[in-house]
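USER: I would love a firmer grasp of how sequence relates to backbone shape in proteins. This is the protein in question:
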Amino acid sequence: MNAKDLRIVFMGTPEFAAPSLRALVGGGYNVVGVVTSPDKPAGRGQKIHQSEVKIAALELGLPVLQPEKLKAPEFVEALEALRPDLGIVIAFRMLPEVVWAMPRLGTFNLHASLLPQYRGAAPINWAIINGETETGVTTFLLNHEIDKGGIIGQIRVPILPEDNVGTLYERLMTTGTSLVTETVDRIAAGEIRPVEQQHIDEATLRPAPKIFKEDCRIDWEKPGREIVNFVRGLSPYPAAWTEMYREGDGEASSAKIFSASFEAAVHGEACGTLQSDGRTFIRVACADGWIALGELQIAGKKRLAVRELLLGWRDVQQCRFRE
């Protein structure tokens, strides 16, 4: 069977999915429809926002479906009318069986980790937070359980010491496009032998659950390398943060930390203590040394490099971060 003849329905929402959609259409694959999230208000002005996948689909001239409910009869009927041979899902909602089982060749998902490790909503973040030196992308067939279907293909990607979520996201997004088209070709050729994820000791796996604001709070009593990985794994979004207060002032504010490095040292300072020369550096005491801050954003202010921030931060020596 020619892969370019397969009738493909593509499902996704964010930026991470859009390049794969463009690669499929650019490569001559027959994408007959795109399913994405409904438009919704966003930002301070609450302007109606279209998903990145919808924007790409409209530019490519593809039909777009935006169901509120994936089990709604009118959506299921519209999907059936597309007569899909294959479904592709990237960063979308959990699908009901009536949707993922509809294409005659099934539906596969692209996930940003080396499954079975880092199943869940935030695999890129957690891989960096946990200090991994390698991750990758995986395609797998959907089944009744989240991220547990038979693995079709994987590509490994190194995590560099200077990587944060932003840089690693870009590389995985690019790598994912080639794995998606390769997976379509293999399915069309009948060359897949899915590797089931059954009989795996769950205790050996690291999960990747959704990250909430309170999960992003820095614990300055932890070892320095863990803190730096934590900052990298949350930068630029949603961003690691800390509570900050001035000596003699009962009111606390907050600061987001976007980049940092670790200096091992023995010191007698309380964790969270700030030191600075007022011109070139700010460092924070942690369990086994100092965290040198690179970029941060004080609540209500702009995100700035430390040297720029210190031009207007005169009382930095009277501040501390709460451990």
The chain has a mean pLDDT of 95. The chain is about 25% helix and 30% strand.
